[in-house]
Write a structure and sequence with these properties.
mainly alpha
């Protein structure tokens, strides 16, 4: 496989990795299991158990496991056709996926800020209208 094709695949495969990692660690649909994992990551007696539950609460940590799943499913490798290619592909996918999640997080914060500012303006306009 040519390097340009491998790099293109890298940026495409990082999208579902980022999507799954973000959804599990941030979105409402997984809120209850995530809260359970947060509690267990703080209360379990065993270090191994605490770390196991923590990985479901951290998008960076969880993205490694999602990446492993995608490497297994797709047999994607980067630069080398053997284990070295899988190793390079794995860390590359995690890195690109986390860049995507960081960008998404920044955009999301910006959108929340804009919505809050619009809500404040709306309240101010309503109050000004009521005072007239």
């Amino acid at each position: 496989m040519q390097l340009t094709s491998q790099v293109g695949d890298l940026f495409l495969l990082a999208l579902p990795v980022a999507c799954i990692a973000w959804t599990v660690t941030h979105e409402e649909v997984f809120k209850e299991p995530r809260e359970f994992c947060i509690r267990k990551s703080k209360s379990c007696k065993s270090l191994l158990q605490r770390k196991f539950f923590y990985l479901f609460t951290c998008e960076y940590c969880f993205s490694h496991y999602v990446t492993l799943l995608f490497l297994f499913i797709t047999k994607y490798h980067l630069l080398f056709p053997d284990w070295r290619g899988y190793l390079i592909a794995g860390f590359s996918l995690v890195w690109i996926a986390n860049i995507y999640m960081s960008i998404f997080g920044l955009v999301r914060v910006g959108l929340k800020k804009e919505k809050m500012e619009a809500d404040i303006k709306e309240v101010e306009l309503k109050e000004a209208k009521d005072n007239l």
